[in-house]
Amino acid sequence: MRSAGSWLGALALAGALLAAQALASDPPLQCEVGSYRLDNGEMLDIGPGAGGQLRWRTTDGRTGALAPQDDGTWTSTLGWTERPDGHRVSFSDCERGGVRFDKTAGHRVPLEHIDTRFRGSGVALAGRLTLPPGEDTVPLVVLVHGAERDSALQRYSLQREFASAGIGVFAYDKRGTGASEGRYTQDYLTLAIDAIHAMREARRLAGARAGRVGYQGGSQGGWVAPLAARIEPVDFVIVSFGLAVSPLEEDREAIAFDMQRGGFGPEATAGAMEVADATARVIESGFTEGFEQLEAAKAKYGEESWYPAVRGNFTWYLLGNDEATVRRQAPQLVYGIPAQYDPMPVLETLDVPQLWALGGQDRDAPPGETLHRLARLQRDGKPIVTALFPHADHGMYEFETGADGERLSTRQPAGYFRLMADFILGRPLRSQYGNAELSLPP
Q1: Residue 147: helix, strand or coil by DSSP?
Q2: Same domain, 283 and 173
Q3: Which positions carry the signal peptide feature in this UniProt record (predicted)?
């Protein structure tokens, strides 16, 4: 469906796949990749896709996968559904940047790209500053990773989309990914220091063009970006589908949401929480203890009607693999994860303006308790805006549900990109962004 960005999203990878990813390098970007301004004024982003495909996106949230055809055109399928949506894209003189989306022509926006290598927290990291055309002062946003292992420089479309909206963007490969050095980690303090170094490098490269600066962090980046801003202040922070609870609390809340969506009652939820207690003991021990308690929970509840619906954020992995596999795979997949990390001491002392964009159907990071805590911080005078997109899952993707119960992503919510861009640009926020439920500070 999409790359997982939640704190244990990497556990979706089998050990063999992980090893292959560690050895493989991303292919060079196709010359079609870029942001295009269509003759009707709309923006069209073309990015790399899976398996030699491309992916198109528009700022209203629509997206599709593009497959090459024998006549030189590219045909589209809706979101990640693999179902044709009728769109067709063609490129004329790729180097000069001509495009046609259905019947509308357009041209590539001449964005300025500056590649760099800079020193993070003890390792060399690969980054890229992307600037809008011209010499005007622009705000700068540093994109902070989730838990994914993909190269941000290859995969993050926001580096082009924001730049086409008049925003300077700095993307960088997280340590241990892409062209960056170091060991992959999920230690938030280490990642926050890396983000601070990325911000300093972005300011250096932008020079006189740098205006207000801040972070946009998705999923796990929602723990990292506020921490970086607390250590070294910036002008704004955006958290997308992130949380104001700990990783272990995230898993419990996700399991409770599993039970709610499945229509199960309090007795089932209580049993599922016992399972969560057992998986928590395993993760807290660094995957060295607690397996007997976990096996006992499996034996006690494995035949219950609600048991197959238990997914959580990492519990599904521990339920679906034997002890030997977990001991072998899990430590490297979640290296450095602070399972009990409490973000509230940071958020309670953070006076930087924040935008939190959350998905009402987020299975990996349910927003209920996070919204409750952010509302309290708003009442305490913190400059926090929340936006709940009611039909969005993790990654801020709307979806359709197949006959097998699996979700297939179709698009991002209307208004999501415009909300972030307006916040970064410092514009007064509109009263409506798609169907988002906005909550502004008093």
Answers
A1: coil
A2: no
A3: 1-24
Least Cα distance to 38 among 27, 50, 46, 28 occurs for 46
Instruction: Output the domain CATH number for residue 428.
Output: 3.40.50.1820
Count of structural domains, the chain: 3
195 and 282, same domain (yes or no): no
Q: What is the per-residue DSSP string for 104-117? A: EEEEE---EEEEEE
Say how many CA atoms lie within 13 Å of 242 toward its Cβ.
Answer: 28
Both 132 and 239 in a single domain? yes
Burial of 127 (0-12, 13-18, 19+ CB in 10 A): buried
**Residue 99 and residue 115 in one domain:** no
Are 138 and 167 in contact, with CB atoms under 8 Å apart? yes
Residues 264 and 184 in one domain: no
Neighbouring C-beta atoms of residue 260, cutoff 10 Å: 13
Q: Which domain holds residue 285?
A: 251-333
> Within this chain, do residues 263 and 329 fall inside the same structural domain, yes or no?
yes
Q: What is the pLDDT of residues 176-230, one digit of tens each?
A: 999 999 999 989 999 999 999 999 999 999 999 999 999 999 999 999 999 999 9
pTM surpassing 0.70?
yes
Tell which residue, 426, 430, 435, 416, has the closest CA to residue 161: 416
CB 182 within 8 A of CB 175: yes
**Is there a contact between 61 and 416 (Cβ–Cβ < 8 Å)?**
yes
pLDDT in tens, 331-376: 877 777 788 899 999 999 999 999 999 999 999 999 999 999 999 9
- Tokens 């002062």 found at: 137
Q: What are the E-state strand segments in 365-434?
A: 384-389, 398-401, 407-411
| 204 and 144 inside one domain | yes
Q: Using DSSP, how many helices (H) and how many strands (E) does the chain show? A: 13, 19
